[in-house]
């Protein structure tokens, strides 16, 4: 750790706190006031009377169904990631030969391929597969595009397992499958929770794939609900912002419990 | 590692060799499910984008080959030229505004201050919000009639920031900064934690103060993190889409129609998916070149975990 506090950056961080904090303050207080109170007193004032009606209205606007759809997408994406990424990461860390190096580089390359760039062919592939306007058509590409980061995070965590442990297991005559189940999985718990939180965050907040791959109300996810709400009831700012708060509430609860895992995962991506 | 060098390093390994037990390793088969899945839903579309860029396709009937027609159309399209210029401007503005702040915040957050944990937790919140939520929030905040500008006329002038091009670009840059600086701060925090303390002690013995330590020890040590972070910013900047769609709809007029948004308009609004694919291909090629640079310059493929001690 540094010997002395860094006052320059400390001052900057206070300014930054205002930049981050003020919008969040407006966000929260706006949702607790009536639309007329918000427009007469302005967003920066403190609400004179509090109400929860905005939240109830959000649900009567069909947010319940959006929630359920988003939950289905998120759970499925996390499920796919948990099934395919750990074996892949295990192979990358432990398998020998050039092929696996090539595969790893190929996933790393995928890190910088933006989802935006493939929306037209994705629309083609998903339509051809008959999955347009089905949640599964959103789940598959979302999961595929979270693979690179999850792979990177998990291999980082699996690399921390010392070779001696593998050798000890090998001396016991353990098969790769047993090494994976009894050594690799238990010891990469932090990496595993990172990828769960990370892929869940991606899936929950996903907007682009639902936007181009679904159209009906029955397959609408929360982010699309927000987008539509803005287009249709843009003037009802407290109502709109309540929908924003509701959309992040589950993520926020997960964050309270899994902050370490998420931060660790993200820091691992940027570390050297 | 060859079995021979393995045997040379440790006694236990030597024992393993003597006992005739090789170190158990998984085969390539373990990587197959993820690889096949990734090929089908990420790489196949990437290949298809190139194919579709040489076709005419309305999204309903099947695509048919039309040679270079999309490309010649785009070269002569003033909105396309303008969109590339805008994309570059926004990307550069993003890197220039986000880098210094995230370095300062990241280095500060890596230090031992008592309150940093609480502040870092607050700084983190924008990362939890979806791009949609961020854009919707800022659109509401900046609304000329019901938003913050009406309350702070001395800061915002006539208040309609999104009504002209410089204002819209400033807003898009600011919102990008608000949304992504926390991510880059985290990256730099990780990088700053990995700087060996010995270097600071040596610098302190040589009489270097905090500021000199920052410029002569911290910054050079953060070089790799800087490369990673800037490349992520560039790729993010090139593909700015959600914020434009929700905050400005590419307007006023086509004043904020960046390439990724123009691709969406060509495809999903004007039903000219061939032209949309051509724009996408340009984005893919640029992004791939940058990602190759990531692997080369930052040593990602030799990456070790640096996340201890959070």
Automatic annotation (TrEMBL), chain A:
PROSITE patterns: ABC_TM1. One of its GO terms (cellular component) is plasma membrane. This is ABC transporter permease subunit. It is a multi-pass membrane protein. It comes from the Bacteria. InterPro entries: MetI-like, MetI-like_sf. Keywords: Cell membrane, Membrane, Transmembrane, Transmembrane helix, Transport. The keyword Transport applies. Its main location: membrane.
Automatic annotation (TrEMBL), chain B:
Pfam families: BPD_transp_1. The keyword Membrane applies. SUPFAM superfamilies: MetI-like (SSF161098). InterPro entries: ABC_transporter_permease (IPR051393), MetI-like (IPR000515), MetI-like_sf (IPR035906). Coiled coil: none annotated. Residues 84-294 form the ABC transmembrane type-1 domain. One of its GO terms (cellular component) is plasma membrane. One of its GO terms (biological process) is transmembrane transport. Gene3D superfamilies: MetI-like. The chain crosses the membrane at residues 27-54, 84-110, 117-141, 161-180, 230-251, 271-295. It is a multi-pass membrane protein. Keywords: Cell membrane, Membrane, Transmembrane, Transmembrane helix, Transport. It is found in: Cell membrane. Belongs to the binding-protein-dependent transport system permease family. This is ABC transporter permease subunit.
């Amino acid at each position: 750790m540094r010997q002395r506090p860094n006052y320059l950056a400390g001052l900057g961080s206070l300014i930054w706190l205002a930049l981050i904090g003020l919008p969040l303050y407006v966000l929260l207080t706006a949702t607790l006031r009536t639309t007329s109170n918000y427009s007469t007193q302005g967003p920066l004032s403190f609400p004179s009377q509090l109400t929860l009606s905005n939240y109830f209205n959000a649900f009567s606007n069909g947010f319940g169904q959006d929630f359920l759809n988003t939950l289905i997408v998120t759970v499925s994406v996390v499920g796919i990631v948990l099934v395919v990424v750990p074996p892949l990461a295990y192979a990358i860390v432990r398998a020998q030969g050039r092929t696996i190096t090539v595969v790893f580089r190929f996933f790393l390359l995928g890190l910088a391929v933006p989802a935006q760039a493939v929306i037209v062919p994705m629309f083609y592939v998903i339509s051809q597969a008959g999955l347009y306007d089905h949640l599964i058509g959103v789940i598959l590409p979302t999961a595929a595009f979270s693979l690179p980061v999850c792979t990177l995070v998990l291999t980082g965590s699996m690399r921390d397992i010392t070779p001696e442990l593998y050798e000890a297991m090998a001396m016991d005559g353990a098969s790769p499958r047993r090494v994976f189940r009894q050594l690799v999985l238990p010891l990469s718990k932090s990496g595993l929770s990172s990828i769960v939180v990370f892929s869940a965050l991606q899936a929950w907040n996903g907007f682009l794939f639902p936007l181009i791959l679904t159209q009906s109300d029955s397959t609408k996810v929360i982010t699309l609900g927000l987008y539509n709400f803005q287009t249709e009831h843009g003037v009802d700012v407290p109502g709109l912002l309540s929908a924003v708060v509701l959309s992040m509430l589950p993520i926020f609860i997960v964050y309270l419990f899994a902050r370490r895992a998420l931060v660790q995962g993200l820091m691992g991506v940027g570390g050297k | 590692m060859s079995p021979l060098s393995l045997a040379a390093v440790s006694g236990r390994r030597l024992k393993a060799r003597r006992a005739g037990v090789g170190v158990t390793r998984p085969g390539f088969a373990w990587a197959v499910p993820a690889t096949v899945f990734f090929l089908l839903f990420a790489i196949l579309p990437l290949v298809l984008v190139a194919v579709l860029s040489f076709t005419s396709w309305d999204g309903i009937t099947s695509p048919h080959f039309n040679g270079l027609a999309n490309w010649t159309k785009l070269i002569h399209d003033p909105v396309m030229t303008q969109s590339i210029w805008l994309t570059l401007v926004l990307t550069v503005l993003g890197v220039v505004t986000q880098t210094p702040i995230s370095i300062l915040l990241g280095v500060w957050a890596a230090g031992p201050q008592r309150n940093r944990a609480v502040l870092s937790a607050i700084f983190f919140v924008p990362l939890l919000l979806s791009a949609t939520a961020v854009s919707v929030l800022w659109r509401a905040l900046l609304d000329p009639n019901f938003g913050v500008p009406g309350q702070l006329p001395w800061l915002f002038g006539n208040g309609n920031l999104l009504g002209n091009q410089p204002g819209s670009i400033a807003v898009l840059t600011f919102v990008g900064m608000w949304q992504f600086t926390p991510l880059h701060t985290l990256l730099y925090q990780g990088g700053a934690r990995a700087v060996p303390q010995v270097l600071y002690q040596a610098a302190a013995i040589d009489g270097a103060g905090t500021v000199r330590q920052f410029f002569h020890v911290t910054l050079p040590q953060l070089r790799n993190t800087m490369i990673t972070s800037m490349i992520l910013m560039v790729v993010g900047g090139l593909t700015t889409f959600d914020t434009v769609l929700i905050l400005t709809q590419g307007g006023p007029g086509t004043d904020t129609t960046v390439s990724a948004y123009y691709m969406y308009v060509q495809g999903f609004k004007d039903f000219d998916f061939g032209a949309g694919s051509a724009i996408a291909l340009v984005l893919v090629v640029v992004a791939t070149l940058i990602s190759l640079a990531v692997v080369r310059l930052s040593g990602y493929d030799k990456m070790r975990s640096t996340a201890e001690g959070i």
